[in-house]
Design brief:
Elements lengths: L1 H18 L7 H10 L4 E2 L6 H7 L24 E5 L7 H10 L5 E5 L1 H5 L21 E3 L6 H16 L3 H9 L1
Parallel strand pairs: 1-2, 2-3, 3-4
Helix pairs in contact: 2-6
Length: 176
């Protein structure tokens, strides 16, 4: 009984302090918040969905207002790989190599029907039926091709996922 009263008392004190501008959290939450506002996508387009990805960076759709304007050309300088378009079996080893060159923590977005599940080419001998057969996908954005607004929405969903993520801590413990 006494323990519950102490917990309720601590929570009320914490709420009073938050109203005055003092916030409580962990270092992990702070790092995840900073990481979520500085995602650097890897500029990697395979087909027509890449055009929509490029359009999302232009003035009309302006993905930069969310902090995603720094599209990198090197996997070593990025933390989000956007697979935009048709993935062939011949291209799969290259995609895996580029993914492995990215630093931890890293995330993957499948952009377009072809990247999600093969699209109109799902029964082709040369097309991979979904990049999730090869890489761990965090966000799926369907469409043929998806609109730039869909990519913006997917990036915002990834931002929420990063803010609530323990992926960085898992990466550190795996490397130790």
């Amino acid at each position: 009984m006494e323990l519950n009263q102490n917990v309720e008392s601590d929570e009320s004190q914490q709420k009073d302090l938050e109203k005055q501008g003092v916030f409580f959290g962990t270092a992990e939450k702070l790092f995840n918040w900073g990481r979520s506002w500085s995602l650097w996508p890897f500029q990697f387009g395979l087909a027509c969905c890449a055009i929509e990805m490029i359009c999302a960076t232009q003035a009309r759709f302006d993905i930069s207002r969310y902090g995603y304007e720094v599209f990198r050309s090197s996997p070593r300088q990025s933390d989000v790989m956007i697979i935009a378009g048709t993935v062939t079996h011949k291209m799969t080893p290259v995609i895996e190599r580029l993914y492995n060159q990215m630093p931890e923590p890293k995330w993957v977005i499948a952009l377009g029907s072809c990247a999600v599940e093969g699209g109109p080419f799902y029964d082709s001998y040369a097309v991979l039926n979904g990049i999730d057969k090869v890489l761990p996908v965090d966000i799926y954005i369907p469409g043929c091709p998806p609109r730039p607004e869909a990519l913006t929405d997917g990036m915002l969903k990834l931002k929420e996922k990063v803010q609530n993520s323990k992926k960085y801590q898992e990466a550190i413990s795996d490397n130790a």
